[in-house]
Amino acid sequence: MTPPRPGPVRLTDRRARAWLTRAAEPGQAATYALVRQVGPVEAVRLIRSRQAPPSVLSAVGSRCDEDRVDQDLSIARRFGIRLVTPEDDEWPAQMLHPMLLAIERGVPDLAPPLGLWVRGPLQVDEAVRKAVAVIGSRASTAYGEHVAAEIAFGLADRGWTVVSGGALGIDGAAHRAALAADGITVAVLAGGLDRPYPAAHGALFERIAGSGLLMSEWPPGCAPYRRRFLIRNRLIAALSAGTVVVEASARSGTASTARRCRELGNSLMAVPGPVTSAVSVGTHELLRGGEEGGARLVCSAGQVLEEVGRLGDDLAEPPRAPPVPRDGLDALARSVLDGVPVRHPATPERIARAAGVAVLDVLRVLPALELQDLVELTGEGWRLSAAERRASSGG
Amino acid sequence: MTPPRPGPVRLTDRRARAWLTRAAEPGQAATYALVRQVGPVEAVRLIRSRQAPPSVLSAVGSRCDEDRVDQDLSIARRFGIRLVTPEDDEWPAQMLHPMLLAIERGVPDLAPPLGLWVRGPLQVDEAVRKAVAVIGSRASTAYGEHVAAEIAFGLADRGWTVVSGGALGIDGAAHRAALAADGITVAVLAGGLDRPYPAAHGALFERIAGSGLLMSEWPPGCAPYRRRFLIRNRLIAALSAGTVVVEASARSGTASTARRCRELGNSLMAVPGPVTSAVSVGTHELLRGGEEGGARLVCSAGQVLEEVGRLGDDLAEPPRAPPVPRDGLDALARSVLDGVPVRHPATPERIARAAGVAVLDVLRVLPALELQDLVELTGEGWRLSAAERRASSGG
Fold first, then answer.
1. pLDDT digit of tens for each residue in chain A (395 aa)?
2. Between 1.10.10.10, 1.10.1040.10, 3.40.50.12280, 1.10.3210.10, what CATH number should domain A325-393 receive?
3. Are B274 and B247 in contact (CB under 8 A)?
4. Is B294 in contact with A288 (CB distance < 8 Å)?
5. How far is A352 from chain B (nearest CA, A)?
């Protein structure tokens, strides 16, 4: 038998999408629309033959003539990175659907990814089925990192995936806390997964890739340009049921993620901090509403889940001071109690005058107050009980 | 000439109101309604002869037979305290009007005062014409006191009166800061003005009485019972265009003032703090909304005045990061700039590939970027300018 003669390499959907992820910066509605209309293989043919619409050609620019698909796929294989596409079962189609609705409404730069470069043992759709983004400033404070960690730990501990951007500061604290809770965490990066950025997070990314997912819209080798962070931010918002901003300065990428979050109809939350802290200025602006739209104030993982959780058992208990017997009293009993001296005992008549109620009422109420250990009867009259004396000095 | 024979002491409106402020705890709608209907003199006669409605008689109780008017007025005179009544020009009728509307709607315990015992050189109506309440926990932190002082100073400095409750902690910090700004501050107390409470604030109260106002609904000698603080709180809210809560624990008197504030239709504001602080739990609950109704988040005196101010020059500037040249760029220029390497110069062709735009576009945009000192041309090609290199390592 003679082997079949090799023909020209046939472009599969997967290879076409690999090409597209390098040629077209993600998020652009024009390119996405073309691929959706004619499929990835035909889209690539139209682009490379300069027959695509001018808006697509201008966006691709000089990358039109490049072909690094073989190289990209080979580097990816070497780093354990796979390309996940809409043709794959694990594609998170449901999570990305609001992006589709957003570009149909004409919101710019919100097109879904053309493909996702992914590293890690989980299926993408499974990993983000119940996910919350915890993001914030790189110039974080110890306070911010502590709160981000508390919230991320609480979320992961209750089976929610923590999505973040892998940056120094708040992002890193969130990823680490999710790992510490033996939970799932997903880092969505703005460059090739073979180039850990920031380099200081190399070891962290290895741990994330071991139990969660590293994810990027850019193929191996791509540098994390500043603008790519903003494009990437829309994906962090899209893959999460809600986004929690922990610290952010006055004008920052975090605010853009937050806006994305609103545009995608997802829940936007922010953690307050000291008004004297520069990295809480951005979160307070989100909480005040304003240009970026209002965020909901959250203090804990429980309050985050109250906002995004669909399950009853995720609801947060409102914080409560310890109950004191006083609370069960009616208005008359409270008045009488107010008239009872703290230390030097008084007669019912004097208590009645002090409280502004009738003596008969005082005589009727005092025994009930005694039963509740709120007052005590001494040889010289009534006064507050020892427990109430202590309570009166606080409260 | 023989002097006229002294008849029975005629009860004036003023003396009648002095009697009422001791006999009836303030806030009760029934007593207020009776006084409003028949006038103070006749109201006193009806109460003392047991002909008043049962709800009024039961509220007055055994104080019915007391008469300490002469004594109260004489002590008041000795301490420089005057009784201000609705019959006086300085009565703050306009500020108290929402209380009247509230009790007409059936909101309990919101009746206007029957009289005000006042000490200080200002007319009451003038002092509270432009007033904001700054209140909070007695168990305050250094952070809370700092912020309360910053806000109170800012308000006083712009001609707004700072109203508070004279308590330790936040209240004291607010009063002191208003005094430090040479502004007007009003302390609304829950007991007789001759009995400074807390005693530790005796000197502070003297300073307030010197340039602002001390005020109470209770005559001299009355003790500041716990329930009186809650009744007093409605007056703090009523006398202010808005109420700022700086720190409050989970369930506290502050929350009741806040609720009063809503019931009176005044603006309710809260200052956030670290979510790790017990005395910010109450303010965060106010900001989250919930039972007590939502408060507006404020960080500064400017933001407070934005909320309550009617004057254009009181509006707050939104916080802004310092402007950077990048912000003026269009999308194409930003893309090109993103493609320019930080350190090692690149050719326009390489920049075009990195940025995903056409080479001609790059050649067109680079000189403009150079003019704005964003990029520089070296022997080997283009790279970011020194200024942009510094900016890139931050941001």
1. 455 554 445 689 999 999 999 999 999 999 999 999 999 999 999 999 999 999 999 999 989 999 999 999 999 999 999 999 999 999 999 999 989 888 888 888 899 999 999 999 999 999 999 999 999 999 999 999 999 999 999 999 999 999 999 999 999 999 999 999 999 999 999 999 999 999 999 999 999 999 999 999 999 999 999 889 989 999 999 999 999 999 998 877 666 777 788 888 889 999 999 999 999 999 999 998 855 458 999 999 999 999 997 543 444 555 544 445 676 788 888 888 888 888 888 888 888 888 888 877 888 788 788 877 888 888 778 888 887 777 665 43
2. 1.10.10.10
3. no
4. no
5. 6
Pairing of strands A131-135, A242-245: parallel
Reported confidence tier of residue B63, pLDDT bands at 50, 70, 90: very high
How far is B59 from chain A, CA to nearest CA, in Å? 6
Nearest to B338 among A227, A320, A354 (CB): A227
Asked if the Cβ–Cβ distance from A318 to B285 is below 8 Å, we say yes
**Chain pair A-B, CB pairs under 8 angstroms:** 154
Distance of alpha carbon A218 from alpha carbon A195, whole angstroms? 11
Query: What is the arrangement of strands in the sheet containing A213-216, beginning at the earlier edge strand?
Result: A82-84, A116-119, A213-216, A185-189, A161-164, A131-135, A242-245, A267-270, A296-297
- The candidate with the shortest Cα–Cα distance to B46, out of B36, B55, B57, is B57
Report helix angle A93-104 to A226-238, nearest 10: 110
CB-CB under 8 Å, A297 with B297: yes
**Of residues A91 and B390, more confidently modeled:** A91
Whether B127 shows a pLDDT value over 50: the answer reads yes
What would you report as the CA-atom Rg of chain B, rounded to the nearest whole angstrom? 30
Our CA-based measurement puts residue A297 at a distance from the nearest CA of chain B, in whole angstroms, of 6
Strand ranges inside chain A, DSSP E: 82-84, 116-119, 131-135, 161-164, 185-189, 213-216, 242-245, 267-270, 296-297, 375-378, 381-384
Could you tell me if B85 and B91 are in contact, meaning their C-beta atoms sit under 8 angstroms apart?
yes
Residue B77, sorted as left (phi over 0), alpha (psi -120 to 50) or beta, turns out to be: alpha
Say if the Cβ atoms of B62 and A338 lie within 8 Å.
Answer: no
Q: In angstroms, what CA-CA distances link A229 with A190, A252, A257, B242?
A: 5, 11, 10, 41
Tokens for B393, please give them: 């390592």
Cβ within 8 Å, pair A58-B357: yes
* Nearest residue to B127 (alpha-carbon basis) of B119, B139, B115: B119
The domains of chain A are located at: 94-314, 325-393
Domain at B93-314, CATH from 3.40.50.450, 3.20.20.80, 3.20.20.190, 3.40.50.1820: 3.40.50.450
A336 with A369: CB under 8 angstroms?
Answer: yes
Q: Among the residues of chain B, which ranges form H helices?
A: 13-23, 29-48, 54-60, 69-78, 93-104, 124-127, 142-157, 170-180, 202-211, 226-238, 253-263, 281-288, 301-308, 331-339, 348-355, 359-371, 386-393
